[in-house]
Amino acid sequence: MLIDALQYNNWSENIFKQLQAGGVTAVHVTIAYHEDFRETVENIIRWNRRFEQFPELIQPTGSAEEVRNAERENRTAIIFGCQNCSPLEDDIGLVEVLHQLGIRFIQLSYNNQSLLATGCYESEDPGITRMGRQVIREMNRVGMVVDMSHSAERSTLEAIELSERPIAITHANPSFWHSALRNKSNEVLLKLSQSGGMLGFSMYPHHLKDKSECTLEGFCEMVARTAELMGVERIGFGSDLCQDQPDSVVEWMRNGTWTRETDYGEGSAGQAGFPNQPEWFHDNRDFPKILKGLREIGFSETEVEGISGKNWLRFFEQSFGPKIPLA
Questions:
Q1: What are the tens digits of pLDDT across the range 308-319?
Q2: 204-240: buried (b, 16+ CB within 10 Å) or exposed (e) per residue?
Q3: Among 45, 69, 193, 317, whose Cα sits 20 to 30 Å from the Cα of 258?
């Protein structure tokens, strides 16, 4: 079983076939960055057309059992998520509605300050807001995962503490390896692990040591060090793959509708385009290379199976259903 906890590709039949060829059982796909509720629904409508067009390759998924079904049928389970809280607008009732529409992850902030939390690019981090506390509680109730991948330190630590269910950092790396703003401190990773949360390792070059020149051996060594810190059962993949996207999509991701200026983003050297992927991970067909690298660096077969997908599957089992009240 192989699960990737974050991709934002220019989806096509070719990419769906690559998912199948790479053995990807399930993938968490971004359906909103800065979209409001109505625009997010339009993105879901487009996904519904894809499910109709390619039923032999992909299926909509909202539970761990549906992931298992996809594995048995040799299809890829598609799990919806939002990289910002903008689809909630300012209405807490939309948390439940979005869950009913199949969304299972929402980031509380995307780089900037939001109504719920602070993003990692802000100079000050006042933490989770009043509305954020209420939204976390509601997400816990309905079975929506709190994702803090693009959030700042204090906000992330408070989310871990406030959430009654484990949260996720679906796509980031440890800052001890590479000090990008998006990567996470040892304190965050320890608290995440102790609370039962999950970290998905990113293969996006700006999150990698040496960026596009990062070696597979270096990446696998980072995974091993993180396993020593967090425990091997709390880690998996969240590649942040943005395959076949035009460079204009980077501007949308970073700029949204909040600025007229070009936000080049950390590590982009004043260039608005996508960086080159490392040579060992161009697309989903390259996952077997990473699994081989993990074995070669000393992970057991059971540990590789956990990192590959079983850790995420266990997390889905705990997270996607409604919270059962105490009797």
A1: 999 999 999 999
A2: bbbbbbebeebebebbbbbbeebbeebebbbbbbbbb
A3: 45
